[in-house]
Amino acid sequence: MHNKTIAELSQSLAQGAFSSVELTQTYLERIERLDPQVNSYITVTADEALAAARQADARIKAGTAGTLTGIPLAQKDIFCTNGIKTTCGSKMLDNFISPYDATVISNFKQAGAVMLGKTNMDEFAMGSSNETSFYGAVKNPWDLDAVPGGSSGGSAAVVAARLAPASTGTDTGGSIRQPAALCGITGLKPTYGRVSRYGMIAFASSLDQAGPMARTAEDCALMMNAMAGFDDKDSTSIERDVPDYSASLNQPLAGLKVGLPKEYFAEGLDNDVASAVQVAIDEYKKLGAEIVDISLPNTGLSIPAYYVVAPAECSSNLSRFDGVRFGYRCDNPKDLEDLYKRSRGEGFGTEVKRRIMIGAYVLSAGYYDAYYIKAQKSRQLISQDFKQAFEKVDVIMGPTSPTVAFNLGEKTDDPVTMYLSDAYTIATNLAGLPGMSVPCGFVGQRPVGLQIIGNYFDEARLLNVAHQYQQHTDWHTRAPEAFR
Amino acid sequence: MSIERSDIEKIAHLARLEVAEADVPEYVRNLSNVFDLVAQMDSVDTDSVEPMAHPMEMVQRLRDDVATESDQREHFQQIAPQTENGLYLVPKVIE
Amino acid sequence: MQWEVVIGLEIHAQLATKSKIFSGASTAYGAEPNTQACAVDLGLPGVLPVFNKEALRMAVKFGLANNCEITRRSVFARKNYFYPDLPKGYQISQMDHPIVARGELEIELEDGSTKVIGITRAHLEEDAGKSLHEDFHGMTGIDLNRAGTPLLEIVSEPDMRSAKEAVAYMKKIHSLVQYLEICDGNMQEGSFRCDANVSIRPKGQQEYGTRAELKNINSFRFVERAINIEVERQIDVLEAGGKVVQETRLYDADKNETRSMRSKEEAFDYRYFPDPDLLPVEIDDAYIEAIRATLPELPDAKKRRFIDEYKLKADDASTLTSDRALSGFFEAVVKEGEDAKLAANWVISELLGALNKNGMALADSPVTADMLGGMIKRIKDNTISGKIAKQVFAAMWEGEGDADAIIEAKGLKQVTDSGAIEKIVDEVLANNQAQVEQYRGGNEKVLGFFVGQVMKASQGKANPSQVNQLLRVKLQG
């Protein structure tokens, strides 16, 4: 049961091969038995899951079920879930029982999906290794000495370890794609504004975007059918019809123009990762794609610009955590200043504090133009690079991450080396473009991801391009031995 | 670009973050490294470039002026650290 | 030394929307604490703002009424600071691209002259909550009902040179926002508030002195007093050889002094940047013109019309147009009573007098415009005299009915039957022969005595001009 995809499970449920309750129990049992090795869940909602599964079974019986009805899913602990602890990986919210549901959560509830629990993540989604979580690092199911990537590390690990058929993630600078790559699963970051941000605890508002993480592109499409859509509670949500993402999966790829940006294959890319990506690109050639060499000349600006824009927004977004209305409050504050400083000083971890300080600095009097405006101008240049590229090609491909999963603790001392692991993913967030990561091989036992970047609102094409590849390769079907 | 101890103290105060004295050197070092990275932006001339605040070329949608929310005080205050008579309590504010 | 006072005002007008600027919570005043603070107003994790259409319309309306430039693409920005009544740790406001830019407004001074005051800008922002400092075991209570109420912050140029000018400007804006129906103007409830930037400089000096910002002054009277007391303080400081510090000061009405706000002592660094949760607000000519078409006749234009059309004195026209409802009331009285001068007199001296005396608002007046007009009609057709009308007015105020009913019930109808009047005149003359002789001897002042006697005898009901005429004829003998 636990090796099936959503598409397969949905069919089995419809045919009555097993019930949602049985399926849910299977996963709950696996979580209980296996998760201690991985640490991928912060909260497991067994009772709620079984109740939802019973309701789903009733819907299936009544013939009113949709594709996701009765399918267990794991939700990143960044989405507010009514009545259920929502921590964002932080001590600050360790006691936070959300009083409302995020739109993404409501959408899945409506579709009849079953929530197994809330997945571990870097604190407030700030990190690329899951090591900044207050709840301890997540381990990579392929190699328990390795990081799963971040910030949606728990969400990637649950899928890789078969502790959920699929999960949700959020991606501000690569937080869906990079852990998907490092854990050998499929993940999609949609176009900015395609999925509602309401109820998703904000890290950097102009970059954050939620998306699906699953074993296959086909499953990602099914998830997107439920997740995507206009939400009048989010001013940045896009009023535009949502296509059926499953409908175009089987389109042939003959004539597809694939751009390979030379900057994504330059210095800093691990040779073995480069080879694996090259093999994948050769596979696309076989499928009829035309490979075009392109350049995204301002790629080098992405990390510097991102580490101004994202901290600036986060420093302001995280001001609401002040120990007054919800969340952590320090013991015995001696005055208001003390309440603020200690609640925030004790409630936030080091990386979060670091980014808040960077953000406060770049916005402060005298530095705003040199940093914030400069970064926004750089962002414009990065965005223009993509606009020009998409006049020539349909999709852009390259590695998701410069290396495979690194070891736990390997990069925690120097934030800058950690930041560099997002070198290929950040630019798409700055531009607001959709991007995917698809498993395309291994270096040793650690997976490699192929990144596919599309033009605005071209998620259906990305899913089609990924699905066709998955019809001809089997990397996405592999499971780590201990979790088969 | 190097960040000084005084910068850390200033921004930690602006952001209302207590930073232990012992941790200051590490923040100084790490933030200096980050700003060295950020300084790479300076290599590109952006004089004639429009700043981009937002990824999409969209304009603000307007909401109809209708009061749609009902009283949820009790629900919301269940998660509050300290309340009394429906008020959130904080240490005395001096004006 | 001769000092010149320089004043600029920042007026905060709460916009009269039903719901908040970025959430669907009600803006109604006076609810139980925190019962009108929804998830968005509380700044719960994950919530997002969506902009209220009506707040935009009201801001544009204000701009158009003052010939301000309207910004076609305005931007919301975050003003970052920590305060317990500011739930998100930032206030959504506007910085570089406010919805309303440069405009101007004419104020009238006590000597009847006018002065133009520049409006720098007016921007939209959200109000904060309230901190209640009563003792909760030495703690402060926070009520966030007000958080998120739309505010229009109207910033003036430093064009005012006295506290009186500042008050005139503030009153003008106060009247205007009510004319435009964008703010209820209720200062007790905090719907209309004012901060004053006050500085002084030696007369003739070009550059401005260092200013102090006086916070949250909630009545016209206090504005004048707070500014004057602050000016005195600054003069004292400078004349003693000291320096004025740039700071925020609070006016204490009880002690009639301003004092430095300790909690705001440190220099703020608000770290403004465009709010990434909101997008630029774009409006086009069609939108602006549609709003322009809804503008009512504004106080200045109305005043000119009242002077031209009703031949009112400038003072009276000012009084009657200072409030939109009052001007409407006046015009309804004119329509019914068909005499503008009488209408103006009766509205200004009797009606406003009675309202003031009873501490009532026009809307609560027991005497309606139709009633007052109906009474004026009876003065005009000589049914009653002006003096009797005061009795009628008092009775109408007491709810005894309209003028006709009261005149009838009390028998106040003026006597115009010349036979009846003649009879009284004859009696008065017969009984006062000595005075008759005086008159005939050339002392015409005695006429007043006879008029008085006749009116007294008729219980005020005799038509005074008829009485006059008859007396003259008879006395001439």
What does this structure look like?
The complex is a heterotrimer of chains A (484), B (95) and C (477). Chain A is an alpha/beta fold. Chain A has 15 helices and 11 strands. In chain A, helix 4 links the parallel strand 2 and strand 3 (114-119). Chain A is globular. The relative contact order of chain A is 0.14. The mean pLDDT of chain A is 97. Helix content of chain B is 32%, strand content 9%. Chain B has 95 residues and is an alpha+beta fold. In chain B, helix 1 (5-14) crosses helix 2. A two-stranded antiparallel ribbon of chain B has the order 2-3. In chain C, the strands form 4 sheets. Chain C has an 8-stranded mixed sheet with strand order 6-7-10-1-11-12-13-14. Chain C folds into 3 domains: 3-290, no CATH class; 299-410, no CATH class; 418-476, Arc Repressor Mutant, subunit A (Orthogonal Bundle). Chain C has helices spanning 39-42, 53-65, 163-179, 220-239, 285-292, 299-310, 314-321, 324-337, 340-358, 369-380, 386-397, 403-410, 418-431, 433-440, 446-457, 464-476, and strands at 3-14, 51-52, 73-74, 76-80, 90-94, 103-108, 114-126, 130-136, 139-143, 150-156, 192-202, 212-217, 247-252, 257-260, 273-274, 281-282. Chain C has 16 helices and 16 strands. The longest helix of chain C has 20 residues, at 220-239. The A-C interface holds A 79-80, 86, 88, 93, 96, 98-100, 102, 197-202, 204-206, 232-236, 312-313, 315-316, 318-322, 324-327, 336, 340, 360, 363-365, 368, 372 and C 39, 42-51, 78, 80, 82, 84, 87-90, 142, 269, 271-273, 276-279.
Major sheet strand order of chain A = 4-6-5-10-11-9-7-8
CATH fold annotation of the largest domain in chain A: Amidase signature (AS) enzymes
Level-2 CATH architecture of one domain in chain B:
Orthogonal Bundle
Q: What structural class do helix, strand and pairing data of chain A support?
A: alpha/beta
- Give the DSSP E fraction of chain B (strand runs of 2 or more residues): 5-15%
